[in-house]
Amino acid sequence: MTAEIVIMVACGAAVGLFSVKFDLEQGKFSLQDSYNYSKLSYLSQTTPNFVYAISEGLDPESLIKLQVSSNSLNRANQSSSINLLKTGAAYLSSRSITNTSTRLAVAHYGSGNIEFADDSGTTLSNGPTYKFTYFSNVTSRQEAPHPHCIIPYDNMTTTDYFVTDLGADRFYLVHLDESAKTISITNYTSLDPGSGPRHILRHPKFIELIFVLTELSNSLLVYKETSPTIFTLEQKYSTLINSSSDNIDKNTTYQTGGHLGISDDGQYIIASNRGHVNSIVVFGVENSTRGTLKSVSVNGSGGFHPRFFLTHGNYLIVANRFSNNLVAFKFENGTIGAKVDEIFLQDPIAMQVVAKIDKQTPTTNLGTAPNCNNNDIGIGLNTNITGLRAMLGWDYLSTGYHGDDGKLYYSDSHRGKIYGPKYSTGDIVGCMARRGVRPDHALYPVIGFGAIGGCVRVNFGDESFVYDIKSDIEKLKKS
User: Signal sequence span per UniProt (predicted)?
Assistant: First the structure.
């Protein structure tokens, strides 16, 4: 089991990058190292070995590739930095194109540009840029276009991206033409004047649901993709829900939305409020068809200006920019619990879990045991760059045959396709068969658990296999 995680923390200070360990058993932070990269504003990691950072202070190295090695960071041994537009890079996302190449997308809040870059595996190179021109001019911060967030449209594409524009009261869907090296707007969705959209996320399981956090109106908007690339507003919720634990900054009058996230299990939508009231609010998905949410928990952020947070296991970790601290809270069933620890770093802006350190314990074979929850298990295929936080087939470059519905899911296809019968306790499911009968397509030996308490017994050849592959080979020879 994972005993510790290593978190890279991007800071807006002169020393702008830190590695921090967090002990998942003790709930304790420890500072591991610091790095002389200044004024970092965002981090992104696509593969276990590399993390990307954008900087507003390293000229001409504003996009940096770093190698994760032995739980530390080093400059990648290659052409590992390029200069982006000098316009205040605000957001960075990365997506694998192949097993060795990565596409990076950057939003420039200051100039109204978005920009792409590609990493071939040996060289970082600049890609096309696009400058937005429309702005709503409703508030003083909407005097120009201000794209704040850029993320892939779904977990399969490397050419279509969502962009939120705070200055335009819009979120866009843009397309990258790889051959022509141009960017175009596919369509856009308008918000209420003065909303100021900051972040956007697609739900990892209920993929038709899109969540938008507005910075200026402190709202969480729920959209539904009613037809491809067409988004309809279903629900609107204020994130300003009072709590006795709110951290109040008496010297500040402004109030804005901060960060938006979804819990590891996909059950909870989380947002931060910053300014006069500094808090974290948690919503649960009540009805995925209508996009209705319910308030589950509200808690003070443990400091001032919570610009970023992340969840890992039973913990919520918050980066409070103006109080210069990371705070860890217990987080179970959507409820923010007691503060367990904090560590002080100057001007923390973003975080990324870059490594997990397993507890060293003897390995044992797991067999069927009393009270096993075997209704939420899948087997299938992952690659070495596939995430491990979702069921098989719910992540990019992953496929899985699920026991609860008998469907085959692949590369973020949450709808699934009928593949074979359901399976549960007592069934024998091999990499190519169920109870000795082979479905039409091959499966591969990866096991995923969608809930705590699942039990499986794995046969790596110590016993005879139920599936008689030799018999099938003979049949194929005769056909």
Answer: none
Q: Name the region of 476 (left: φ>0; alpha: ψ -120 to 50; beta: rest).
A: alpha
pLDDT band at 130 (very low <50, low <70, confident <90, very high): very high
Q: Where are the beta strands (DSSP E) in 363-478?
A: 377-382, 398-402, 407-410, 417-418, 446-449
Six-digit token string for 420: 């074979």
Yes or no: say if 189 and 234 are a contact pair by the CB < 8 Å rule: no
Q: Can you spell out the DSSP letters for 297-351?
A: EEEE-SSS-EEEEEEETTEEEEEETTTTEEEEEEEETTEEEEEEEEEE-SSEEEE
Enumerate the β-bridge partners of residue 284. Answer: 268, 294
Instruction: Give residue limits of the domains in the chain.
Output: 2-358, 364-479
Residue pLDDT, tens place only, 256-312: 999 999 998 899 999 999 999 999 999 999 999 999 999 999 999 999 999 999 999
The widest CA-to-CA distance across the chain, in whole angstroms, is: 83
pTM of the model: 0.76
Q: Which two tokens stand for residue 284?
A: 């649960």
Give CA 113 to chain center in angstroms. 23
Fold of 2-358: Methylamine Dehydrogenase; Chain H (2.130.10)
Beta bridge partners of 163: 150, 172
**Cβ proximity of 393 and 380 under 8 Å:** yes
Taking phi over 0 as left and psi of -120 to 50 as alpha, with beta for the rest, 431 belongs to alpha
Contact by Cβ (8 Å): 377, 365: no
- Residue for token digits 């001007």? 347
pLDDT band at 370 (very low <50, low <70, confident <90, very high): very low
Picking from 37, 38, 156, 51, the residue whose alpha carbon sits closest to that of residue 93 is 51
The residue that leads in pLDDT, 311 or 447, is: 311
